[in-house]
Amino acid sequence: MPVAESERVKTSRKESTSPSPRLNHLRLLEAESIHILREVASEFERPVMLYSIGKDSSVMLRLAQKAFYPGSIPFPLLHIDTGFKFAEMLAFRDAMARQVGAELLVWRNEPAIAAGTNPIVLDTKRCCGLLKTQALLDALRHYNFDAAFGGARRDEEKSRAKERIYSFRDAAGQWDPKNQRPELWNLYNARIHPGESIRVFPLSNWTEMDVWQYIHEEEIPVVDLYFARERPMFVRGDALLPIEQDFVARPGEKPQMVKSRLRSLGCSPCTGAIRSDAATIPGIIAELISFHSSERANRVIDHDQEGSMEIKKREGYF
Amino acid sequence: MATLTASPFSIDEFLLAEREKDLLRFSTAGSVDDGKSTLIGRLLYDTQSVYEDQVKSIEGKGTTAPGQIDFALLTDGLRAEREQGITIDVAYRYFSTARRKFIIADTPGHEQYTRNMATGASTADAAIVLIDASKGVQIQSRRHAYIASLLRVRHLLVAVNKMDLIGYDEPTFRAIEASFRAVLEQIAADTGTPVEVRFVPVSALKGDNVVHTTSAMSWYSGPSLLELLEALPSARETRSEPFRFPVQRVLRPDHTFRGFAGQVASGTVRRGDEIAAYPSGRKAKIERIVTFDGDLEEAIAPLSVTLVLDREVDISRGDLISSAKAKPVVASSVKASLVWMDQRPLDVNRRYLLKHTSHTVPAIVSLIDHRVDLGTLRHDPALTLRMNDIGGVSLHLLRPIAVDLYRDNRGTGALILIDPETNATVAAGMVTEAQLQAVAGDEDESAAWGRVTAGEREARWRHRGGVLELAGPVELIDAVERSLFAVGAATCRIDAGKLESLQHLGIVDIVTDLQTRSGLLTILARPNDEGALTASAGGFEISASADNRMHAVTAVHQLLERAGIFISPEGADL
Fold first, then answer.
1. Looking at the structure, do residues A82 and A202 belong to the same domain, yes or no?
2. Which residues in A lie closer than 8 A to residue B116 (C-beta atoms)?
3. A166 with A183: CB under 8 angstroms?
4. Given CA atoms A257, A262, A266, A270 in this order, what sign does their dihedral have?
5. Which candidate in B13, B14, B15 is best for mutational testing of the A interface (most A CBs within 10 A)?
């Protein structure tokens, strides 16, 4: 399994946990998320967890294990495979599903993939529309899921700051910002009409820092692509592009070995890497702290990508 | 990573310090004019919670003087949305300091203020109330303080903002403090929830006393707003409060394991503790406290755990596992403060769904006791509650639930109402009174034998048999009958014509007596054209003007309580 277990600094939570009278922020966030997972599993007929293989999904999956322990996770995992995921990610996905003992569903928009859809032939937006949004809506409809967990967080971007934990979608799977319900205390209104569904965000109140700290404390496996390694990359100014798909290369372009890592995991043609020495989780966290006061240059790609993500989300993806 | 190597930063020390951080949730409310966006922007900026490129992107923009950053632009998502006509709503923001992590529930003022403020306050441990020093105490500040108090936000931090505009004048600050303290006392008297309040003179624009203390106001030696936020007691301390655990789910992975999954709402549970499950009231002991990370000896709120009991007890989702000593009230009638949140006003004859902890029960608002005028804090009579109204109501539940007063327990005293047709969340409620059920929950009514007794009828219908005589406008008589029906009373109406026939036969007393013995509430209706309703029952008589239907109906319900036909809360509490 492509999991960087060996390089992790071992500071196990259990050995150092004194019977502190106070619960720290991670325990409080964990308790809230578990409550949400249990509510949805109990109030909806056919929930599903969208599993994207990234760090947030990894945390969400661990929380689901915790919520139903000693039972197994009472809903399947759904991965929307665009056909452009890193091979490493797919291997990790299958290994995790086996390890957790959860049912894994994989959905691909086969007609679009067969037609050669890619972000260079089409633009990024239309490519995502077909391979992600359309595939997701088709999968939800096909399996008749009425609730879908997603790993999105409110701190990701301005537009997400007002997202509910239970986000309502009409029969076409679309989000009506004017028709969202007030959410008070921990009392979630789970009533839907036939055909309607909800997206649920159990990590709403987590920050990117919380996610990495939790991964560190809980020793949650993540894909090795997050850690800095010497990797072959196409170097275009500040941008580093993985060589995973050959159509990404420009005529005559040759890859170089660059010590780099991915900050977020997406489709290989559209996911830029960053130059980094962070080969451990504490290293990643240290890097994250430095982002707050460092130049924006080393995350130009990631930042641009988030901008386009926002548009995709409004159109019904997340 | 030049910044890291330049300073003596150690990631291991950082991670250890992070483990000690807790979480404080606070709400803010206000409009652009109050400087609320500037205040939040300043908090985020001065705690280094924004990326440098975000700051760069707003430099030289906005409405501030050259060279000054318009911090309001950092939280500007809302303004853009307003232009697009999207509902203005609660936004959540995150930042952390070396001491703790913070979640801000940022609620804009103006439109839908009450609904949004209540939503933001529902999960908040503290609230920042803004007062514009150049304008003094405005309605907006009163409203926010009232809602914070109603929702039991324990700590109020009053930021008297724009001190720079009044030359950092201490007497003005002191005058605002004195007048707002008087308002807060009034509010506490109304909501029954005293708040702990601190006043801080600030200038969000200049950064005075927001994060850093300032030399601009030498007369103020207290902490800055952020220092206060860092020092507040964290998430309410419920360790010593009665243990409450609403069951979310029964976990039965195989025949050897049966556990109850939920989140501790308050208090502490230890292995070996005696507990009771409500509404049944059956008792058991805690055998194990199970988590993925191993069994615990004790669990405190708000941990999510799974409880295993030492014996087989019939418990399902929605039941409340509780301390066997400090019991909740098993009630099918409660009084509650409601914040109405829907475009469709409250309809007293309509059946709503009431969600409380992990269960949902059909419920009817049987009476609107009053509506609060937030300007004057006066309690006015009301026929309905509209969007953003706050009022006191009586709720009749079609199944009993185990509750606490919201005052005592935020988790088991809170509820929402859902419209079963539109599925909208129409109201947030806080239980202010709960009436113990007449029949103890652990006696199973249907399992009883023999003749049905008066006590059993009483338990089902929630009233005793009796006769109610009504004379007045027929619409008003109809309204009374309907309101009785709405609360689940078993009534039998005899109209004037039939009454005459019975009188002619001389059997009125025989008929009403039989009905009374059967536990029915007989209504003798004599419609007339007078402008008042006269009602009598059990030797008491009232007269109510027909102009205010709600008043008249309420008066009849009170009459029935006085006459001992309706079981009064006082009597049932014994």
1. yes
2. 182
3. yes
4. negative
5. B15
Cβ within 8 Å of residue B479, ≥6 positions away: B549, B552, B553
Q: How many other CB atoms sit within 10 Å of the CB of residue B557?
A: 18
C-alpha–C-alpha distance, residues B404 and B50, integer Å: 42
A237 with A111, same domain? no
B498 lies in some domain = yes
Question: Of how many residues is chain A composed?
Answer: 318
Evaluate whether B51 touches A290 at the Cβ level (below 8 Å).
no
Which residue reads 């025949």 in tokens? B255
Query: Could you tell me the CATH number of the domain that includes residue A72?
Result: 3.40.50.620
Q: Give the span between the Cα atoms of B321 and B317, in whole angstroms.
A: 11
Nearest to B124 by CA among B142, B151, B97: B151
Tokens read off for B151: 């929702």
Q: What is the spatial distance between Cα A273 and Cα A242, in angstroms, rounded to a whole number?
A: 7
Q: Is residue B445 part of a domain?
A: no
The type of residue at B132 is D
Strands in B440-572 per DSSP E: 466-472, 491-495, 521-527, 532-537, 540-545
**Per-residue pLDDT tens over the stretch A141-161:** 999 999 999 999 998 876 678
Q: Closest Cα of chain A to B283: distance in Å?
A: 24
- For residue B278, what are the contacts with CB-CB under 8 A and spacing of at least 6? B319, B320, B321, B322, B327, B328, B330, B402, B441
Q: Which of A167, A192, A219 is the last residue of a domain?
A: A219
- The C-alpha R_g of chain A, in whole angstroms, comes to 20
Q: How far apart are the first and last CA of chain A?
A: 29
**Beta strands, E only, chain A:** 47-50, 77-80, 104-107, 147-149, 166-169, 197-200, 229-236, 239-242, 256-262, 273-275
Give CA–CA dist B60/B43, Å, rounded.
Answer: 20
Residue A94 near residue A104, CB atoms below 8 Å: yes
Whether B94 sits inside 8 A of A277 (CB atoms) is no
Mean pLDDT by 10 residues, chain B (574 residues): 54 89 88 77 84 67 66 61 58 90 84 81 94 89 90 93 96 96 92 89 94 94 96 76 96 95 96 95 96 96 97 94 94 95 90 95 92 90 92 92 94 96 95 74 45 74 89 92 89 91 88 88 92 88 87 89 73 34
The boundaries of the domain holding residue A160 are 24-219
- Are the C-beta atoms of residues B92 and A204 closer than 8 Å to each other? yes
Taking CA atoms, B205 is separated from B38, B42, B72, B157, B164, in Å, by 6, 8, 9, 18, 8
- Cβ burial of B139 (10 Å; 0-12, 13-18, 19+) is exposed
Contacts of B34 (CB under 8 A, 6+ apart): B109, B130, B131, B132, B140, B161
Q: What is the CATH number of the domain that holds B192?
A: 3.40.50.300
Contact A25 B416 (CB under 8 A): no
Identify whether B250 is part of a domain.
yes
**Inter-residue contact B340 to B385 (CB < 8 Å):** yes
> Phi and psi dihedrals of B215, rounded to 5?
-95, -5
Of A34, A39, A285, the CB nearest to B15: A285
DSSP code string of A207-244: -HHHHHHHHHHHT---BGGGS-EEEEEEEETTEEEE-S
Q: What is the ipTM of this complex?
A: 0.87
Query: Under an 8 A CB cutoff, do B317 and A191 touch?
Result: no
Residues B316 and B369 in one domain: no
- Structure-token pair, residue B297: 């000896």
- State the smallest CA–CA distance between residue B435 and chain A in angstroms: 23
Helix (H) or strand (E) holding B141: helix B139-150
Dist CA A140 CA A197 (whole Å): 9
Partner B contacted by A174 (CB < 8 A): no
- Of A26, A158, A295, nearest to B77 by CB-CB distance is A158
